[in-house]
Design a protein that fits this description.
The chain is built from 13 helices and 14 strands. The protein is α/β, with parallel strands linked by helices.
């Protein structure tokens, strides 16, 4: 996989914020070396946030996000500002572009305070240094001119200083060279035609990078495949929706987990999700459950998130429950009406986005868990699904 093929969720998300006409879009175009954003002397040219996955030297693979002015006015302007602030939920590094002539104002101060509360790395970028060049006091401040390019390379280097390479393994720390890993990937009406879903691709690639042996198979052929193996596999990874079937086929002395649980461990906290799943045993009639997916796809008649999961939960709990659904970048501003949030593996969300959802849930006192954790619990195999992690 080349850097340009890297999924957006695995790229550093760099968002640019600023007041209207601070030159934010011009700075972005100078940084990226292309006309990514529309530049105009008219205020409010940028409306909804604009995202672009690209590779920028020396930053590497990134997602650049241009946002609407944080000082936008009127009823529509307030909606644009709200969208810009929502962008913080998926931001890894924030660049606040300030008009050097106008100086830092209340809009920027308010934004900085919010960013500090979220503990996000940020840079104060004073644009229009060709007109006024303010004194720089701190390491995260820089002066640039989008007009003559002065300071743009230094800005890219400063951004690069904040980028931290992700060293979290998906499963390479659980296997050794030469181990056999069986990946159970059911191909049903919900499976994408002609390809594997992203978690399956990522797990398969890491098995190969570990110089282990990968066997990719559907659940219907699993039993026969295990019989043909000379030695037992080190690990079996399956799609969560076939946990029940696969757990009956795989010998008890062989580790078993799911793609969803591996993605959870890769991006978040197993402990938080396991605690959240305990809420299943406390649900009451009338409770509201939010099921959230990080991607948007065409719903199939037997969709796991909107059909299978609710049916399994109702069967497991025996309660009359209400289910609500979100997908993609959609996530409720308030979670207080929900008794539980159940999220997918979040392969299509970057770390900041899924982490912000989990923290958001915790702050509002709503338990947060994950598809794989919930499904394995309902099948009575949660402990087994966590054994390979030493849980």
């Amino acid at each position: 996989m080349s850097l340009n093929d890297l999924p957006s969720a695995e790229r550093t998300h760099i968002a640019f914020f600023g007041r209207r006409n601070a030159g934010k879009s011009s700075v972005i175009n100078a940084v990226t070396g292309q006309n990514l954003s529309i530049v105009s002397a008219e205020k409010g040219t940028t409306t909804d946030p604009v995202k672009k996955a690209m590779e920028i030297l020396p930053l590497g693979p990134v997602v650049i996000i241009d946002t609407a002015g944080i000082d936008d006015e009127g009823s529509l302007g307030k909606l644009r500002v709200a969208k810009s602030m929502e962008t913080l939920n998926k931001t890894d590094i924030a660049v606040i572009v300030i008009d050097s002539v106008a100086g830092i104002g209340e809009s920027e101060k308010k934004l900085i305070e919010t960013i500090k509360q979220r503990k996000l790395p940020y840079i104060l970028c004073y644009n229009k240094s060709d007109l006024v060049c303010p004194e720089i006091k701190y390491e995260n401040e820089i002066t640039v001119s989008a007009v003559n390019g002065k300071g743009i390379n230094e800005l890219k280097e400063l951004i690069g200083n904040f980028i931290r390479p992700k060293n979290t393994p998906i499963l390479s720390d659980l296997i050794s060279e030469g181990d056999t890993v069986v990946l159970v990937t059911p191909i049903d009406e919900a499976a994408p035609k002609g390809r594997l879903i992203l978690p399956e691709q990522m797990v398969l690639r890491e098995v190969l990078d570990s110089h282990a042996v990968a066997i990719v198979i559907q659940d219907g052929e699993l039993e026969e495949a295990l019989k043909r193996l000379k030695d037992k596999p080190r690990l079996v990874v399956c799609d969560s929706q076939v946990f029940g079937v696969v757990s009956k086929i795989v010998p008890k002395d062989v580790h078993l987990t799911s793609f969803s649980i591996l993605m959870l461990r890769y991006k978040l906290s197993l402990k938080t999700a396991v605690e959240g799943a305990k809420t299943l045993d406390k649900l009451k009639d009338g409770d509201n459950i939010l099921i959230s997916e990080g991607c948007t796809h065409h719903r199939q008649c037997n969709d796991i998130g909107t059909v299978k999961l609710p049916n399994w939960i109702k069967s497991y709990t025996g309660k009359n429950l209400n289910f609500f659904f979100t997908a993609g970048g959609e996530f409720p501003a308030s979670l207080t009406k929900y008794a539980l949030v159940i999220h997918c593996g979040a392969c299509m969300l970057n770390d900041s986005a899924i982490r912000s959802r989990m923290i958001f849930s915790e702050k509002q006192g709503v338990p947060f868990t994950n598809y794989g954790i919930v499904i394995s619990k309902m099948h009575g195999i949660l402990d087994r699904a966590l054994e390979v992690f030493g849980q």
